[in-house]
Each structure stands twice: as C-alpha cells, then as structure tokens.
Specification:
Elements lengths: L2 H19 L6 H14 L5 H14 L2 H8 L13 E5 L9 H9 L3 E5 L5 H14 L7 E3 L9 E5 L2 H11 L4 E4 L3 E5 L6 H12 L9 E7 L5 H4 L12 H16 L5 E2 L4 E4 L9 E7 L2 H10 L4 E5 L26 H6 L2
Parallel strand pairs: 1-2, 1-4, 2-3, 4-5, 6-7, 6-11, 7-10, 9-10
Antiparallel strand pairs: 8-9
C-alpha cells in the first residue's frame, strides 16, 4: 500500500466509527454489543466512555487533520521496506493504544501489538474495522499473546516500575518507553462557571484514569477551591460505578480516620497537596502566590506532566480539551511518527 491508500483506509475507518456511534443508525447495535463485551471484561470501560473514546478517534481522523498532520513528514511518500514495530500497550482508558497503532500503520510499518488485558476487546475490534476498510492491513496487524521477539523497534507504555523492565528487555532496540505522567490545571481565579464545568471533563472523563486527566489544580492564593466542586454535578453519575464508588469510600474513610482536612461533595474529595498524582476520586490542589513561583513548580515537574489545562497559562490546552488530543499531540511530547520514519 502507498501512503494515499493508507490514508483512504483510515478515512473509511472514521466513517465506520461514525456509523456505529450514531444512535439513530441501524449499525448502532454493533456498538452496543462490543461495548457490552468490553465492559464485562473491564468494568471501568462504561458504554458512555467507550462511545466518547470512539468519537474522539473519529474526530482526530477528520481529513483536514490527517492532511495537516502528515504535511510535516514529506519523507513518508517514499516506499520503504516495512519494519516490525512492537507496541506494548496500556489499558487504563478505552483505546488508549490506538494512536500508536495509527502511527505505525500510517508510516507503512507492521504493527506487532502486545495488548493490555484491560483493553483487548476494543483494540481488536478497531483493528477488524480497519481491515474491513482495507483488507491488505491484515498482513500488517498482528497481536502477540507472549513476549515480543526481535522487533525492529519498540514503543512501550507503562508505569514507572514496568518501564524499568521495558528498558532491560528492549533497551537494545530503537525505542520509545513511556512512564507515569499526570496532567494539571492552572486557574487564575477569573474562570466562569462554564469554564469550570468544562474543566470537570478534564478531571472526570474515564473516571480520571488517563494520563491526560487532570489530577492536580494550581490555584491562586485566597481562591476558594469549592468553586470548582459547585460546577461538577453533571458528573455525579460516576459514583454509580461500583469500582469508582469503592475508591471514593476508601479514600474518604482514610481522610476521616486520620483527620485529614478535605472537601467532599458526595462523589469526589478535594485535598491540598504538593503531589501531582492523586488517588481515584481525589483531586489535589496547591496554592501559588505569583507567576514566577508557579512556573518554577511546573518546570521542576515538567517530565512528570503530560499536559497543562488552562485558559491563561502559556502553551496550555483549553478547559475541556485534555481528552481530545489531535494527531500531533504526541504522548510525552515525543514525535512518534518522526521516530518511526527514522528507523
């Protein structure tokens, strides 16, 4: 396949996703079935959040986005011998590994995927849809159950602990190895209720399990953090999920037993902390006195931050957009496509 044929296949994939996520389309039954299977496999993957993930993928595959994205890589027009790219995938949120698959296949290489058991249903489903769009992809998509053997390169995503194993096993290959990261929001105190409701999307989508979910707020001295909680009621449904509710109840009990100061609105706990990574159902916040101190804090922790959500901070993402990454919004700021082309 040449590049134009690969592009066409992903455009057809977008159309297929749009069909099954449209509640008025007869093919919506396909979505209901696959989301039921995925949720049975992983209770964190609710139908609502699976649909959101699929629609996010569809939005990123808009023809104008693909054109803008690939315009940065003129070398892709060349027909090179496909390389075997091993991809060890995370499974914390639905289809989190899709963009690595997209990059590998769009660059003309062979995708050798090691799926997370938490997200094997949806990733195999999306691969089947892609093969339906372009049958030749069946020779470029392989899912390995065991250890990845002698790949030409590796892309691996995991925790800080697993990354050490990845470096041990895959360090001899060209690689991208990703560790734990969290996202933060910077408020200046002038946010409207509408903006704060959008910020709730950044916090609560996928129950806050993604690296692009906001787990920490930086707020100006004197700001009342309860202003945020007043604008999160549209997410109180997340406590209907047993796994989320168990985490909420556990953390609330810990705070109460240990007399830890916190604010509680019935489904999330707000606590002051200098840490970036908060437990499920907990949001950390930290006051800043001036812009210089804030920038120093963020700069010191930049390698632990996936993205910054704000309406005023430089090089940030608008409220509500953290879980709507564009094709060029690479994880950890590493240009995956440039890496693949250069192998």
């Amino acid at each position: 396949m040449n590049l134009n044929e690969r592009i066409k296949a992903f455009k057809l994939l977008k159309r297929s996703i749009d069909e099954i996520t449209d509640i008025n389309n007869t093919k919506h039954q396909i979505f209901k079935q696959i989301s039921r299977e995925a949720e049975n496999r992983n209770p964190w993957f609710t139908r609502q959040f699976i649909r959101y993930a699929l629609m996010s993928v569809s939005g990123s595959l808009h023809p104008e986005n693909i054109e803008k994205w690939l315009s940065e890589y003129p070398d892709m027009q060349k027909q090179n011998t496909p390389k075997n790219i091993g991809v060890v995938m995370a499974g914390n949120i639905p289809l989190v590994g899709f963009f690595d698959m997209l990059c590998v296949l769009m660059s003309g290489n062979k995708f050798i995927g090691k799926l997370s058991s938490k997200d094997d249903v949806l990733m195999k489903f999306i691969a089947d849809m892609l093969i339906d769009s372009e049958n030749r992809f069946k020779d470029f998509i392989v899912f390995e159950e065991g250890f990845l053997k002698d790949p030409d390169a590796i892309i691996a995503t995991g925790s800080d602990n697993t990354s050490r194993y990845f470096e041990q096993y895959f360090g001899k290959y060209p690689n991208i190895i990703r560790k734990n990261r969290n996202s933060v929001a910077v408020l200046d105190g002038n946010e409207s209720d509408e903006q704060l409701r959008s910020l709730a999307d950044d916090i609560f989508l996928y129950f806050g399990l993604g690296c692009r979910n906001v787990s920490k707020l930086f707020i100006p001295a004197g700001y009342d953090p309860e202003c945020l909680l007043k604008n999160t009621d549209h997410y109180k449904f997340i406590k209907d999920n047993n796994k989320y509710a168990n985490n909420y109840d556990y953390n609330r009990s810990v705070f109460l037993v240990n007399n830890i100061k916190h604010t509680n609105n019935g489904f999330v706990l707000l606590k002051e902390s200098e840490d970036l990574s908060s437990p499920i159902a907990v949001i950390y916040f930290e006051y800043y006195k001036d812009k210089a101190g804030l920038e120093q804090k963020i700069s010191t922790n930049r390698d632990k931050i996936q993205c910054i959500v704000s309406e005023t901070y430089e090089n940030s993402i608008p409220f509500g957009d953290s879980q709507k990454p564009q094709l060029w919004d690479y994880a950890d700021g590493i240009d995956t496509m440039r890496f693949l082309i250069g192998i």
